[in-house]
Amino acid sequence: MLSLTCPNCGVTAEETEFAPGGEAHLKRMGPGADDAAFRDYLFQRKNPRGVHFERWRHAFGCGKWFHAARCTQTLEVFGTYTAQTSSVPDDIVAAIKARRPDWELDQ
Amino acid sequence: MKRYSVFALAREAARHHAGWERAWRSPAPKDAYEVIIVGAGGHGLATAYYLAKNHGIRNVAVLEKGWLGGGNTGRNTTIIRSNYLQDSSAAIFEKSRALYETLSQQLNYNIMFSPRGVMMLAQTEHELRAWKRTAHANRLAGIASEMVSPRRVKDIVGIINIDGPRYPVLGGLWQARGGTARHDAVAWGYARAASDLGVDIIQQCAVTGVDRDATGVTGVQTSKGAIRCKKLCVVVAGSSGVLAEMAGFRLPVESVALQALVSEPIKPVLDCVVMANTVHGYMSQSDKGELVIGGGADGYNNYTQRGSFQHIEETVRALIETFPLISRLKMLRQWGGIVDMTGDRSPIIGTTPVPGVFINCGWGTGGFKAIPGSGWATAEMLADGAPRALAAPFSLDRFTEGRMIDESVAAAVAH
After folding, report:
1. What's the CATH number for B29-82+84-99+183-252+344-401?
2. Is the dihedral of CA B285, B286, B290, B293 positive or negative?
3. Other Cβ atoms within 10 Å of A46 Cβ, number
4. What is the predicted ipTM?
């Protein structure tokens, strides 16, 4: 069972207190976008075996959204960070690199 | 290949069973094949078998990272049914179910197909309406399934509690020719028959890269060296995203864990499959007497083949309300498989952005029932270079065109 820390209210709890919300940092496409770009936004997903960035909601707590960096192969959580950003913060990248030296950020 | 028969059994009984031969060959990989199939699960092996059997293409290798049938083929709850809502789904799943009927004879391998009937419970008014709609759609598609009353549900499923306080049974969608089969035997039977037709099944051979030039795929890099091929078919379920990344494209697929568990063995109490989709649980009884139970999938990406404990608890808690008899049972084993979920909960069979690379994935939580039909349709596609009628609706393009085959709403959760 995952243990996550909500960066909004600071509470650390088990995954039953949170709701997963899928891939983070998706770029929303507008009405003017072509079909391929809109498909990518709606359906195409990064599905890595390894480091993954996700949206979570503190459903049974403060109710707010946040982001988590997690390994899909080991379930290790590298860190959580605010949802009010469109890129991965430097301290999270550093925390991942400390555990996965070969990993490169791909955005 | 020596055929299995009652005479073979008598012959071997008379000589201390010393004459049984290995069910399939384990050759070293050749330098090149016409077709390489990645993944020796049910779908990959069925594809190889029908390629050799129906299309005469026998220069085929099936590469498997682990052992044959060790992924989702050996981890599912073995349910076979075809009562799907959408026409394209109904066509391929009914083709599959029909092939299951005679598969043991076809493969000369007892897959223990048991058409014991599948009962899908309606436990809310919405579900009742949805199943009625599905029953009408099935009738139009020529699939034998029917709506039955709560009384009839109780007649068929003796141990069920139809007037529970939270989840009363309001009816059921009953497919009498649905059922179960022995999942390992399906993989083993296809492997044996395909190997006999000349297909090389190479286990412990992980694909580490896909070779391509300007015109398309040229081969694969593996843990047993480079192997060239003209066509490459990726049939790796949960690992589809990883293989697609190697080939240089992305899929509308996310991999999550789905769990199942079995109870201690008890005397026969349940002679059909019961699916309770409102409460995320489905159950049947194995020949050994264990209750085989499946539940809902986890909500987040996961490659560990382990699921979250709370999903087991949710599944079992809900099933106890519907089947009070199981409340004192001990659960023996629990396991997980990695399922590849698409946005519309329908599979993908089709060509990919890389010429010569084909894909069969996205079966999500319901792939076992589709093995024969999926193999049949994928073999047609590999032989022709383009999908025929059975597979055509399941192409990757549908996500660009908005042409969804929406089974996520139709099937609720259990698939």
Report:
1. 3.50.50.60
2. negative
3. 18
4. 0.92
Interface membership of A3 toward B (CB under 8 Å): no
Q: Is B105 exposed, middle or buried (0-12, 13-18, 19+ CB in 10 A)?
A: exposed
Tell me: the pLDDT tens digits for B245-256? 999 999 999 999
Any A CB within 8 A of B255 CB: yes
> Is residue B410 scored above 70 in pLDDT?
no
User: What residues of A are in contact with residue B302 (Cβ under 8 Å)?
Assistant: 72, 75
Q: CB-based contact (8 Å) between A98 and chain B?
A: no
Cα A105 from Cα B144, distance rounded (Å): 52
Question: Per residue, what are the HEC states of B191-260?
Answer: HHHHHHCCCEEECCCCEEEEEEECCEEEEEEECCEEEEEEEEEECCHHHHHHHHHHHCCCCCEEEEEEEE
Give the minimum alpha-carbon distance from B294 to chain A in angstroms, rounded to a whole number: 19
Among chain B residues, the shortest Cα distance to A53 is held by B301
Tell me, which fold does domain B118-180+255-342 have in CATH?
Answer: D-Amino Acid Oxidase; Chain A, domain 2 (3.30.9)
Residues A91, A93: Cα–Cα separation, whole Å? 5
CATH numbers and ranges of domains, chain A:
3-25+48-99 (3.30.2270.10)
Note whether B5 contacts A: Cβ–Cβ < 8 A: no
The span from the CA of B257 to the CA of B250, in Å, is 20
Contact B399 A72 (CB under 8 A): no
Question: Which among A15, A44, A46 is the nearest to B308, CB-wise?
Answer: A15
Q: Over the stretch A25-80, which tens digit does the pLDDT of each residue have?
A: 999 888 889 989 999 999 999 999 999 999 999 999 999 999 999 999 999 999 99
Distance CA B33, CA B199 (A): 10
For residues B20-48, give the mean pLDDT.
Answer: 97
Q: How far apart are alpha carbons B346 and B366 in whole angstroms?
A: 9
Q: Where are the domains of chain B?
A: 29-82+84-99+183-252+344-401, 118-180+255-342
Partner-chain contact A74 B301, CB within 8 Å: no
Which residues of B are less than 8 Å from A26 in CB distance? Answer: none
Ordered strands of the A19-23 beta sheet: A19-23, A51-57, A65-71, A77-82
CA distances from B103 to A56, B107, B187 (A): 45, 6, 12
Q: Give dist(CA B77, CA B290) in Å, integer.
A: 12
Residue B393 to residue B391: CA distance in whole angstroms: 6
